[in-house]
Amino acid sequence: MSNREVKQEELKTEHSECGGKYVEMVKKINDNMPCEEEFYDLSELFKMLGDSTRVKILYALSQGEMCVCDIVELLDVTQSAVSHQLRLLKQARLVKYRRSGKSAIYSISDDHVYTILSMGMEHISE
Amino acid sequence: MSNREVKQEELKTEHSECGGKYVEMVKKINDNMPCEEEFYDLSELFKMLGDSTRVKILYALSQGEMCVCDIVELLDVTQSAVSHQLRLLKQARLVKYRRSGKSAIYSISDDHVYTILSMGMEHISE
DNA sequence: TAAACATATGAACAATTATTCATATGAGAG
DNA sequence: CTCTCATATGAATAATTGTTCATATGTTTA
User: Fold this and answer.
1) What's the mean pLDDT in B72-98?
2) Contact status of B6 with chain A (Cβ, < 8 Å)
3) Which residues pair with B108 in a beta bridge?
4) Model's pTM, two decimal places?
């Protein structure tokens, strides 16, 4: 018996008495709940945006590709800190990079990132 | 002399030699950088979405308002944990609530939240 | 008013995480 | 090959944060 089935069983038999008004809805939602992994990935994505250094980096890169030393200069952050954060962003596939001589040129890896950022900015200015 | 002006001064005089290719662009971006507070607020917003319990709660509420015990049942989380997280979400104005008898009915506070969530879900399924 | 239920909250603990410092790697210039 | 610049990385530290447990608050019902 899967976890989901167990959960439904509980829904049928053990729903608290708090109202009952929502029992049906809850049952329905439960049937269509994204799986654990999906929620995990989603929260990991937002976690990446949930740090002001990283958000600054992403904002900068959203204006165009640039190398690490540009970012260091633009923001008020150590080279080491920027590099560490870029590694995380790269792992999360939010940015990509290429080497060019001594420099490493970073850029936003796809348009979704930019859209999410804009949504966020729109939201905080209401 | 403001911080921003100092920054620009540095840009003119101390830009690393790494390329120079981006100096002009960096200068331009620097002039239009959102302020520290804006970045802070933005990252705080995403931080709220950067936890799988909270994301689950928000997803549930995106399907319709419900009381705490519904959420507890739907997700696999303690009542206490849910309550703590709801407080944070409320503080961040991502959810609102009203009392109805013994229950507290929570709901998403505005459509932006839903949009950002959807964007995120779209992104992770590429 | 007492009992039962729904929710909230404070304190403690464990886990995660961002930054710093020191140093390593990589790449071009001389 | 050596020096210098650009970037990366490991270890240590400090701070933040999510959950749990115990208990408090608030609301209805008997």
Assistant:
1) 95
2) no
3) B95
4) 0.85
